[in-house]
Model the fold of this input.
Amino acid sequence: MQAFPLQINPEDTLREVTEINQKLLGGIKTLAGLKHSDVQVGTAPREAVYTEDKITLYRYKPVVAEDKLFPIPLFIVYALVNRPAVADLQEDRSLIRNLVKLGIDVYLIDWGYPSNADRWLTLDDYINVYVDNCVDFIREKHGLDQINLLGICQGGSMSSCYTSIHPEKVKNLILMVAPIDFHASGRSPGLINLWGGGINPDLMVAGLGNIPGDLMNFGFLMLQPFALMVQKYADMIDIVDDKAKLLNFLRMEEWIFDSPDLAGEAYKQFVKDFFQDNKLIKGEVVIGKDKVNLANITMPVLNVYAEKDHLVPPPSSRALEKVVGSKDYTDMPFPVGHIGMYVSGKAQKDLAPSIANWIKARG
Done:
């Protein structure tokens, strides 16, 4: 077969190279004018209202009149992996800010950065001590028997456990991109492949103590190595001379690479019981002395998931409906990926109002 020589137009090549050079030059000028404070994330006004060990409970400053503030607070529990700032990346891309604007009284637990001293923290410590103490603080502060609970990603799995054990303290449960059936992978094995297959958590914890956040972060990147480690940096050339778009990119990078270590014992139990043995959906997880039965979740449930999620495949989240005891259960899909749930235009427009309206409709 005859090979056809590649035709290169020198003028087109010169023009493309010139355009790239101009963009890069503009990008260098833009970067030179930026300070680290320009790319900080998680900047919504808030106050630390309770601390214990490494954890901090924040209350976000309301922006509506007191008589317009919804009387039942919303307590957000994020994953132990990465930082909760993804829910407040910047002013125009912030689930938290949008909820606050809609009159929701928002609290959030910040897990902090575990040190070697936290090597022996268990899921019982995180769920039955830290989360429960924060819930009790909020209940006492507002004079309430129950609060609303929003669990995100791994924080959603933990919130499901908490609500099963302490149903009398939760009025409404909202989960967002939360894995429930860890073996329902759908089109992508997602986190199951990263945290479950081929991992010996006992050996890892014995050798490392705490699991380095950078190690976990590298694993996430390897789920989509070309898109997350090559393509996005190549694509950055197209926006490097646009300050607003460049700041958006840098804020996301700031969040991605801010990766706390994971307490060894808690990591070991989560991998073995949730990912490898899939005990949550089976009703076999034990947290401390308490067995988790998702049928105990009889209060209203809102389950928000991402249809294009490569980390927590939709079937893993949707499995919740079959096991909870609630008669008021709502699935709420969004046509985005896992991170798109926080940053996409569709999610920014609809997510917070949908959650706020659902909560308010249930008093």
Observations:
- Residues 36-361 form a domain with the Rossmann fold fold (CATH 3.40.50.1820).
- Residues 20-29, 225-230 have pLDDT under 50 and may be disordered.
- The first strand starts at residue 46 and ends at 52.
- The chain has one domain: 36-361.
